[in-house]
Amino acid sequence: MKNEEQTKNPDVSEAPEEDARGERRARRLIKPVLLGTGAALLLLMIAAAVLFLGALFAGDGEGDVKSIRQAEEETTADAEAESLAALLHAPAAQKILSPEVAAHRENELVFSVSMADFIDSFNGFYWKDRAVRLLPPQQNWGAVLNHTSIQSDHDTVCYLFSRDERVHSLPSLTVYVPADAELIQEITVDFDDHGYDQGMFEEYEDMCFYVLRVFFPDVPEETLRGLIRTLNDYAYDHVLPNEEGYTHGAVPQILYYRNGVAVYPYFAIGQCVHFCVIPVTDASIAAFQSQGTQAEALPENGF
């Protein structure tokens, strides 16, 4: 009976042995799985490290090119700035001009001097007083091509200079040059009156003085400064409406002239104060007068 029971119920006595075999089988199965997972993780870690190092040392090709180009541009800009600074501190020889008035294109008068000559003459006077140049070479000025200008119906390049273009309250200088010739139509010294600053205004009047020095080298300093004060006072006392701003065909209210050189102020609401120097003839003065300009001749000797 005992043997029959054992035969009929083999699971009763064999179960522990089966369980043991199952555990051993499971261990054999789990071990390679664990080994395979560990190897895969290791490979993933190695691949990630390779990618990181590749990005670190190789980088984005386009980004690298841009960085190199930017560095080269910054180096070039720094070198140009140093060269310009050295030039502005180099001595400037005195250059006296004798500007004559000439007709260039239709209904257009010009001074028979180049912008480069004007810059050299201005800097010569400025250096004599301050041992530094103010105006950089023509190629360092900003430039805008317009189809007309204040005094011309033709294409004109407006050259613009400011000691620091980021500071709007600084005075600036504009030279109008025919697009087809190195001559001068007009020169203006410009002052942004918004947020008026006395120090900046004095710098503006200094620029006016050195511009007049170029055209009237024989006139005493105090006489020139007196004329500048007179014109600027007139500008503030006779402010024009905004719609009569300083643009093509603007007509001065008052004008002083001598030997083909005329100076006048112009100030309209919302715009800069302009101190203007233009070439004139008897005919152009008469044309201004017919439009209401008060024209006054300056004395030949020292005003």
What is the beta-strand fraction?
Answer: 15-25%
Structural class: alpha+beta
Classify the oligomer: single chain
Major beta sheet, strand line-up:
3-4-5-6-9-8-7-10
Query: Could you name the ranges where pLDDT drops below 50 across 5 or more consecutive residues?
Result: 1-18, 24-35
Major beta sheet summary: 8 strands, mixed
Write a structural description:
There is one protein chain. This protein has a domain at 90-297. Helices cover 47% and strands 18% of the residues. The protein has helices at residues 2-8, 10-57, 61-88, 115-130, 198-215, 221-237, 282-290, and strands at 101-103, 109-111, 142-146, 156-162, 172-178, 186-191, 254-258, 261-267, 273-279, 294-297. The longest helix is centred in the first third of the chain and has 48 residues, at 10-57.
What key attributes describe this structure?
single chain; 303 residues; alpha+beta; eight-stranded mixed beta sheet; two-stranded antiparallel sheet; 10 strands; disordered N terminus
What is the structure about, briefly put?
The chain is α+β, with helices and mostly antiparallel strands. The chain contains seven helices and ten strands.
